[in-house]
Amino acid sequence: MGSVRRKVRRVRARIAGPRVGVVYHTAYAWPDNPIADARRAARVLDHVLGEGWLVPADVRVPPAIGLGALRRVHDDAYLESLDTPSAIARALGEAEPPPLAIAEGYLRAQRWATAGTVHAAGLALSGAGVVVNLGGGFHHAERGKGGGFCLLHDVAIALEEVRARGFSGRALILALDLHQGDGTRTIFRDDPRVVCASIHATAWDEEPSANTIDMALGPGVGDATYLAAVRRMVDQAFAAAEPQIVFYVAGVDVAIDDALGGWRVSADAIAERDRIVLERCRGLATVMVTAGGYGPDAWRHTARTLVWLLSGEDRSLQDTPALELRAFRRIARELGESELSAGPADDFGITEADVLGDLIDKRRPDLLLGFYTTFGVELAFERYGLSDLLRRRGYPCFKIELDVRSGSGEAITVRTDDARRLVLLELVVREALDVAPFRLLSIEWLMLQDPTARPTPERPLLPGQQHPGLGGLRIVFGMVTMAAQRLGFDGLTFVPAHYHTASQARALLRFLEPADEALFVAMKGALGARSLIEASPLVDAGRIVDARAGKPVPWRPARMVAPLSAALRDRVQGPTYDRQVEEAAARLELSLAAR
Question: What phi, psi does 430 have (nearest 5°)?
């Protein structure tokens, strides 16, 4: 049925034409890097084309942009400096210049995305209404320097270009990225025909500006606070600007799942935000650019809004953790209780349960959690993909051992099945009794290691590691979550010993206490645009400090939970929890200390 619906959509799209303009060029792709998804724009387009909301003929490809357009905004000396990797490194916040080919890749991608914003502005003013450029939003670039991953200020270049073609009206540049559009307000500070409006976490530029409306909301912001601010901002900005063209900088780094962001805004709230803005733009020439958004799921937020613009339908897109959890649940349904709690059948297909029937206690004390046999655990490893992961890491033969009488809980140990007996995995679980009234399955200890691998610059040892990791953390969390669900627990719980473990676990778990959630997002904000490999050693070394007291803020192991019951979900989600996180985050002022 899905394929039929997609075909129907494609036919309708061909007949009716697009309800919104879409601008894209294959050159938008950034070089591969550990922070941003290099194919973010392509993934958005692949989704709307693949689902039939748009046909390829309706995608507008921008023409190349000339040097003259860039010079209307940027200084000649700065533009000339972009030929050197060191200038690119400064804008990207890198200590060392990238290889020349990588530097040229970043510049090429941003120059083409800038061409896209220019093209989108021309289309919007020619009567196309809302036009979405699947790139751009480089609002940290100033006339004479780059910054915040931004080399060229595409919106400013686009506005000056349409002015050069005859546009003389008023403009509103509305930035709802996590970070203030400091380059925007600097470039247009003395331009009375432009209103620059921005909602952000903290101010990067506080120079007085008569045509700027700023809302700095601080760290840890959740849905209710954010959407209330958006509604206030939209009313104020449109009243002040009375615009004939709107540039909407629709950053999605406000999302709770953003790799760099320090806010906690849900996918539903981002979709609502975009609808609030774009419905207010009805009848106006409007250019939407994508701006900030980091990690593998950033594209989904933009794709959801684009589908709404194209079809009028709001269709949520599940993120990677949700898709993984759905896959785990499907596998869990396929695994029968008899397979997990009994051994393999004998030659006649007769199990112990067939012989003894009701005499067997289903919660036997010699089984893991009173339920899983060693064979059942081996089967789970195979079905969930953990065995395949071990084989891909170079361990074709391994043995799974259970110890249900371990002093700290019930243990699974995986060793190489050879004379070396190398430990690959250790997992200790028990029922947590200290989080009343909830019944939780607790991971007391977890180690996944690749004992024959050697650290490399790309894969160094993280705090607490003796060997590089195996990379199966999310599989293990998924498996244990399914065990908790099967056995009737309210949820899974885990206390991460290190920042990087908490960050990895946060795909499926949340902090139980709002104050701990606030500390995590404040640390995440202080670490800025750093990969997890860079960030975790900084936390462990005490480089995160209280900016007011000047004292190091150490990592504080705190309980995280993956809620399975409605009661536990209510405990760690919703307006009350969000408000408590915001209040706790407001009391924190963390920064990264220099060496």
Answer: -160, 165
Q: Cα(264)–Cα(275) distance, rounded to whole angstroms?
A: 19
pLDDT string in tens for the chain (595-residue length): 566 565 545 545 554 445 899 999 999 999 998 889 999 999 999 999 999 999 999 999 999 999 999 999 999 999 999 999 998 998 888 878 999 999 999 999 999 999 999 999 999 999 988 999 999 999 999 999 999 999 999 999 999 999 999 999 999 999 999 999 999 999 999 999 999 999 999 888 878 787 999 999 998 999 999 999 999 999 999 999 999 999 999 999 999 999 888 899 999 999 999 999 999 999 999 999 999 999 999 999 999 999 999 999 999 999 888 899 999 999 999 998 889 987 654 443 444 444 444 444 445 668 999 999 999 999 999 999 999 999 999 999 999 999 998 788 999 999 999 999 999 999 999 999 889 899 999 999 999 999 999 999 878 998 989 999 998 999 999 999 999 999 999 999 999 999 999 998 888 899 999 999 999 999 998 998 888 888 999 999 999 999 888 899 999 999 999 999 999 999 999 999 999 999 999 999 999 998 7
**Stretch (H or E) spanning 69:** helix 67-71
Beta strand ranges found along 47-202 (DSSP E): 59-60, 130-133, 171-175, 194-200
Go through the chain and tell me how many residues it has: 595
Contacts 24+ apart (CB under 8 A), 191-197: 193/168, 193/169, 194/159, 194/170, 194/241, 195/170, 195/171, 195/237, 195/240, 195/241, 195/243, 197/172, 197/173, 197/233, 197/236, 197/237, 197/240, 197/241
353: Cα separation from own chain's centroid: 47
- List the one residue out of 204, 211, 102, 75 whose CA is nearest residue 528: 204
CA distance 127 to 123: 7
As beta bridge partners, residue 446 has 427
Distance (Å, rounded) from C-alpha 129 to C-alpha 284?
Answer: 6
Q: What is the 3-state secondary structure (H, E, C) of 259-326?
A: CCCCCCECHHHHHHHHHHHHHHCCCCEEEEECCCCCCCCHHHHHHHHHHHHHHCCCCCCCCHHHHHHH
Alpha carbon distance 398, 418 (integer Å): 8
Helices (H), 441-472: none
Q: Which of 139, 140, 200, 498 is catalytic?
A: 140
301/293 Cα distance (integer angstroms): 9
Q: DSSP H helical segments within 447-531, as ranges?
A: 473-486, 499-505, 514-527
- Is 140 among the residues known to form the active site? yes
* Closest C-alpha to 248, from 275, 216, 224, 267: 275
Residue labelled with tokens 């959690």: 369
Strand partners, 147: 150
